Amino acid sequence: MRLLQITAALALCSTFSGKINVMAKSGTFLHVTDIHLDEHYLEKSDPATNCHRKDGDKSKNTAGHFGTLGSDCDSPVSLVDSVFDFMKGAAFQDVDFIVYTGDTARHDRDSKLKRTDSDILAAHKKVLSYFSKTFDMNKVTLLPTLGNNDMFDHNAMNVAESDKNSMNILEDLKQLWKPLDLNLTSDFSNGGYFVQNIANGPSVISLNSMYFFTSNTEVSDCDKAGSPGAEELVWLEGQLQEVQRSNKKAYLMSHVPPVDKSDILYKSKCYSQYVNLLGKYSEVIAAHLTGHTNDDNLAVLYKNGKDYSLTGLSKKVNIDFKTNDIVGVLTNAPSVLPQNNPGIRVYQYDQSDYTILGWDQYSTDLKKANKNNRITWQKEYSSGQVYGVQKLDASGWRSVVQKLKTSKKVFNKYKSFIKVEGI
Ligand SMILES: *[C@@H]1O[C@H](CO)[C@@H](O)[C@H](O)[C@H]1NC(C)=O
Question: Which fold has domain 22-418?
Answer without folding.
Answer: Purple Acid Phosphatase; chain A, domain 2 (3.60.21)
